Structure formats: structure tokens, C-alpha cells
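Dear support,

Our group has been running a series of protein-ligand predictions, and this particular one with thymidine-5'-diphosphate is the one our PI (initials K.S.) wants archived with full inputs and outputs. We had some confusion internally about which version of the output was final, so please treat the block below as the authoritative record. The input we submitted was:
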Amino acid sequence: MDEKVKIIEIPKISDQRGNLSFISYGNPIPFDIKNVFYIYDIPGGTKRGGHAHKKLEQILIPLSGSFDVVVKDTKNESVIHLNRPNRGLYIGPLIWREMKNFSSGSVCLVVASLKYDEKDYLRDFAEFIRYIRK
Ligand code: TYD
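Confirmed final output from the archive:
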């Protein structure tokens, strides 16, 4: 899973007025950004994700608050806690992910390498395993 799940350090410009971070193509985003979306007003106890992508790459950024991301492939599973707006999580293709334990008021920004296309999703875990093995 090493290359397909990794922490991305996002540049941070700090001065007495606060912090400014940027997510530009090349630094730190390793793909052309085709879609940007954000998840917010998340009720307590909610789980999101619960799918993999065939081709899409994305980076999850906790703009505010914190949450956990569970990532799985056929062999490994790990949980990554995201709680800093200048630290994102890159997830490549064919990685199952679930987001949970959202703190109250949290906001998750997602930048993705492809536009939304339901055909790129694997939403059933058994289908995901079959897709990888074929
Ligand atoms: P989904 O990817 O399942 O959200 P999450 O992984 O956070 O649980 O998307 C939720 C819904 O939003 C689903 O019906 C597809 C729709 N959607 C769009 O219409 N456009 C988009 O760009 C995205 C990412 C999702």
C-alpha cells in the first residue's frame, strides 16, 4: 500500500496574521486537479466513504477539526488520523477507504484527479476484491 496511501505535507506560510496553505499542481498535488469537493455539517457518528476508485486519485485535507480514515487493500489495513490543515492524505486507485470519528464542525476538503463519474466507483467490498484479483 506504500505508494498508494501517503501523508502529503502541504506548504504553510505563517506570519503574525496567521497561516496560509496552498494546494497547487506540482506542489504538493501530484496530479492535475479535475474536481474539488468538501464534506461538512457531518452528523455525529457518521461514516463516509465505504468505496474504492478504479482510477481516481485524491487527497483528503482536514480543513477544520479531525477524523479518521481507514484504508484497506487485499492484504493491509490501517487507520490514519487527520487533524492538521497542512497535512493531507493521498489515496491512490484501488484502495478501500472509510472516514469516521468526525469531530463536531469538521470540514474535509477533497481534491481529485478526475471529475465525478459513478462508473469509477467500487462501492461493494466483495466486488472491490474481485476487481483487484481479476
Ligand atoms: P460519495 O463519493 O459517495 O461521498 P463519500 O465518499 O464522502 O461518502 O458521494 C456522495 C454523493 O455525491 C453521491 O451521490 C455522488 C455525489 N457526488 C457528485 O454528484 N459530485 C461529486 O463531485 C462527488 C464527489 C460526489
